[in-house]
Design brief:
2 domains, homodimer, about 35% helix, Peroxisomal Thiolase, Chain A, domain 1
């Protein structure tokens, strides 16, 4: 398989962006990525737009985004895998480039959510669960993940404090990320006292709906070497699926098979193992999700996620720093943009451009992005 | 670039399918394709689901479709380019296979539309136009295409009878297609007398919203030769974009630049020219669209589309038979399924399995699929 690199990354400010439309958010990230790569838009062969329709009125977002970025008449289309859309967008762009069909592709993850009322968003998000068997019974995303949290607590004795510690860690690093929605620390106490959303998950256990965009410029080896002297190579691309309906799944609700499967594919393709990873971004849609991900990615043994965190191994300076860009919990979760945002942070780490949160000697990084209630998982492994 | 073939095709009955949900429609087409290729589901490495969300309640359709098809834990995601979704799905699957990432991929185009009232569908379809500058002013899809019709009439003297003749031709061939929504002939008179939708387009000038699914099984050369002795090779894959907003386009509204660009790419990749094409499926969302497509694909000179039709050159037995499976006008237009449906018909032609409508000696076929009001166009060229 032909080698493919990320040659530029861009990121809009995430948050409640009443000042920017969908297309404008996309432009922020795209122009940032062009500046980062020091190339012109004319060098781009086409775009893969990644947006989990439809939190705003615009249908078929690739059309309006490609127009606004000045990318007509080049190919464009939309890739969607719920919250994992733009990680899957990178895999798609990788294929378009690795196959020889294109030389340089822009992956543009973008979402405009906050024009809807929070309850409308929850209704739409719930419909990324099974609308025949589950969502009519109230399975919004917090409710789904709360069931996983409860199961982990019952089986392994995980506590609400253990989960709160994820938020405390991620919000601490969020203070270093100018693009994050939340840049203030919170305490364990703050998390525990925040209002219940879906027991045992409270407000500060949950990431926030947000507007935002992130962009990855992807090139074949020849172009990559011409464009930049700091390419970051795509080494592993794991993608797996799981039944959408919980009733279709096997085993206890204390882990996501989909993550294990995606990780296995990605580790095999990259020829590395969990212990080789120097820095990771994992999908902390809820505090419990990060704990499950530690275990499913092989950073900790089953049930030992909370201990990994307590031992400060996922902190900067630890064995495997996780979400030290603040994670979804600090950055917010503009669904279509999240995967590309995680990958942007890993690219910055591997280029040694992560500033205050730089991991010394980081050479291999991982980004894990879950779609919906785990019907998709993408694991991306990058190398400097 | 590594060679890729279509090794199996499947097609559900199109129409008002109150008897089948989204997932069931997908299964109809998928199981039909497995039967066609004489392989088991275990031979499939993953799926690319193509659906223009969200004409039904289910969000993130790839999740529920992959589950229902029994394709977990294999990779899946959704590709969307409005009405061109599953043609773009084929291009995406081609890349996944040609790059070496996968061996055999199922492209599943599916749409469930008719649970919505017609006016709701029109509202949602209109939002595949620009929601900031155009759709609030009433630009539903018929209104958009009516403007193109009016321009073609004004510039070239095209008449309502000329457009009606497209419907008459396509409905005639629709009588031979058991999967088509409409299987009755209509006369020029019937079309002219049908009720106005958006002048000059009348009811019978318009394709119908429908439920349906179509599936393409795509394999690399090694697998293709093992699976089947009648592979159909993907020779050209053109994809282009155009500004979503009409105001962003140049030139008269008598042709689609996006089709010309996509055709140019596809012809170049396949190393053929328009006159080499033996049989074609083109996007007859409206009767006028087929006329524009004749011209934009190079089958007729500008303004000469109606003459090509009058001369019976696009009939079975003519120089370039077009939409002899009945086209969207007979089959109905389940948005996400349409591209794969067109390609299915071309595959059957190139395998000499098109029965009553077989084109003698067909070796090179073309399918053209427009997304929205021409912000996307895909041109696929296949060879036996």
């Amino acid at each position: 398989m032909a080698r493919v690199a990320i040659v530029g990354v861009g990121h809009s400010k995430f948050g409640k962006r009443s000042d920017a439309s969908l297309r404008e958010l996309a432009f922020e990230a795209y122009s940032d990525a062009l500046d980062d790569a020091e190339i012109e838009s004319s060098s781009i062969d086409g775009s893969v737009v990644c947006s989990a329709t439809h939190y705003d009125k615009q249908r078929s977002p690739a059309g309006v985004v490609a127009e606004y970025l000045g990318l007509n008449p080049k190919p464009t289309f939309n890739v969607e895998a719920a919250c994992a859309s733009s990680a899957v967008g990178l895999r798609t762009a990788w294929s378009l480039v690795s196959s020889g069909l294109h030389d340089v592709i822009a992956v543009v993850g973008v979402q405009k959510m906050t024009e809807l009322a929070s309850r409308e968003i929850q209704e739409l998000m719930g419909r990324a669960g099974d609308v025949m068997w589950e969502s009519p019974f109230g399975t919004t995303m917090p409710a789904y993940y709360a069931m996983y949290a409860t199961a982990h607590m019952a089986r392994y004795g995980t506590t609400e404090e253990d989960m709160a510690a994820v938020t405390v860690k991620n919000r601490k690093y969020g203070t270093k990320n100018a693009k994050a929605m939340f840049q203030k620390t919170v305490s364990i106490e703050d998390v525990l006292k925040s209002r219940p959303v879906s027991t045992p998950l409270k407000l500060f256990d949950c990431c926030a709906n947000a507007d935002g965009a992130a962009c990855l410029l992807v090139a074949n080896a020849t172009k990559a070497r011409k464009i930049t002297d700091r390419p970051v190579w795509v080494a592993g691309l794991g993608l797996a699926s799981s039944p959408m309906a919980l009733a279709g799944r096997h085993g206890p609700m204390t882990s996501f098979e989909v993550t294990k499967n995606a990780a296995k594919s990605a580790y095999e393709m990259a020829r590395v193992k969990a212990s080789d990873i120097d820095v990771a971004e994992v999908h902390d849609s809820f505090s419990i999700t990060e704990i499950l991900n530690y275990e499913d990615l092989g950073f900790a043994r089953p049930g030992k996620g909370p201990k990994l965190l307590k031992d400060e191994e996922t902190e900067l300076g630890g064995k495997i720093p996780v979400n030290i860009d603040g994670g979804l919990i600090s950055k917010g979760h503009p669904v279509g943009a999240t995967g590309a945002s995680q990958i942007t942070s890993i690219v910055q780490q591997l280029r040694k451009e992560a500033g205050d949160v730089q991991v010394d000697g980081a050479k291999i990084g991982l980004a894990q992005n879950i779609g919906g209630i785990g019907m998709y998982c993408s694991v991306t492994i990058l190398r400097s």
